[in-house]
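Students often ask why we bother predicting the structure of a whole assembly rather than each chain alone. The short answer is interfaces. A chain on its own may look different once its partners are present, and contacts between molecules only exist in the joint model. In this exercise we take two input lines together and write out one structure for the complete complex. Read the inputs first and try to guess which parts will touch.
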Amino acid sequence: MTSATFPEAATRSGRWHTLHWAITDSLVLTWRSLARIAREPETLMDVTVQPLMFVLLFAYVFGGAIGLPGGGSYHEYLIGGMFGMGVAGTAPGTAIALVADMSEGIIDRFRSLPMSRAAVLIGRTASDLLTQVIGTMVVAVAGLAIGWRIHNGPGDALVAFGLALLFGYALSWAGVCLGMVLRSVEAAQQLGFILFLPFMFISNAFVPTQGMPGWLQAVANWNPFSAIAAACRELFGNPNPSALVQAWPMQHPELAVLLWSGLLLAVFAPLAVRLYTTKAR
Amino acid sequence: MAEIPAIEAEALVKKFGSTVALSGLDLWVPRGGILGMLGPNGAGKTTAVRVLATLLRPDSGRARVLGADVVTQAAEVRRRIGLTGQYAALDSSLTGRANLVMIGRLSRLGRAEAGRRADELLDRFDLTGAAGRAVKTYSGGMRRRLDLAASLIGRPEVLFLDEPTTGLDPRSRAVMWDIIRDLATGGTTLLLTTQYLDEADRLASQIAVVDGGRMIAEGSPDELKAKAGKDRVSVVLAPGADTAAAVAVVSAHAAGPVAVGAGDRLTAQVPAHDGITTDLVRSLDLAGIRVTSIAVDRPSLDDVFLALTGHGVGEGAGQRRAAAGGHETGEQLAGWDKGEGVTPQGGEAA
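Now the answer. The structure tokens for the assembled complex follow.
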């Protein structure tokens, strides 16, 4: 009786058919993630409360003590770095959500369905992207409130937002891989925190790298978060002391963001799909 | 037989590191009916189900579901099966209805059809009232019913149920049993794993006893019990009845000596066949002997299991059940003792 329920599967086949279902399944699972957020809005804290807290903390607590090489407003400087945080903040959450899915058994359910294998991951990262849009909006509004402005016109600003979201999307695939490898939600939470904080802080996101010891400067200047912060500052026309740094990514921050994002996607997207399809088989 | 069987497995082997979960499992399940896969924890039941449902790739051996190979034609298999695992595989943050619609959509139903099917199943499983609530607020029994509903969204021809009633209270278990029977009546082939002997006894038309990753016996519940040996009859005489005459009557039916215990209770082994109880009652009545009660206990499946494996079903499963709660253990043990006893009230039997 069931074969009659799926006539299209039996007759129409091939690449287009597969793609059509992969997109449908991905949309269904994107909807699932968004429906979860709608029911549990507190899960958005990583892209709302967290960046907001850091904006206020750095603007008003640490900011007064931080001088910028080349001068300029620290408040305007800070926001470029905060965009990186606004988009990257979802990656630990992605790992946690996937570990939870695994332990809840719903991934087994998905695997036993005649659905696209990659859709679970595409749906998840797509909904991450939408929450990252919320994160960048929160940072932008907070920035406008503390004196940050866009000086270079809407075109450059859109490129900056686009680069930030591209990087955030690429990073959420790393989060997916982490979620596939870890066994417990607690491990994902702790590891996410342990990886996330040093990555954020050993960069120019909050303070110019010029004050760091030489070896740490090298690390910070090649940190993708420095590239995303520098690219945003350059495109928004905000103070960008990194322009004075000779390291290649600081001289070409937009290109560096593109390359980092491409690298992350090229490594982690296929790895995530591979981990997902082979896990426990 | 020309018909393609629902499930056929040949020499399935699956190892996890040094642990051998399946050590050459063979299985042949015709279409229709309920196959009860019975075995202790660690026997390989769950692994077998996961291999057949395409979640695990066997190390060696072959398995087909409705003629499609579970490894090379996994997509085809997935289109035609449903799986309900040991733990409700649902999104606990979403509502019951949202879960069903989502799984319906992923089972290739259109949006309208998925919604219609979700409502139909919610109604059928008595979940309509809770349809708009998050699954995390559901009781254990409701979750299992929703999980089963989710497995049925795509109208599977073969349904795998991995310990569908583990951890449920007796009432929820009875509800699940009714649903499972209804499904079988509707033509779905079910493979049900269980460590509850009474569950296999009540539901399954065929039982495969699995131990150490392979099948060690197969047959209908009665065939398996017959293998384990003789029934045991126990007659309690009414006050003033002639004990010696009663012993003579029971001896005529017994397969061995008749023991007389305290309170005028006679016990003896009798050949296992249907009608033994009525034969005994009739003979005792003819001899004018009044009895208070008479009971014939079939060997339980636990006896069967002991006879087949040299250890009880509970052994090796003890730790996990203890961790899951003593309530469950007690309930399960009660199930093992259930024979096919007949205990008429007072003198009615005489």
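Check your guess against this: The two ends of chain A are 30 Å apart (CA to CA).
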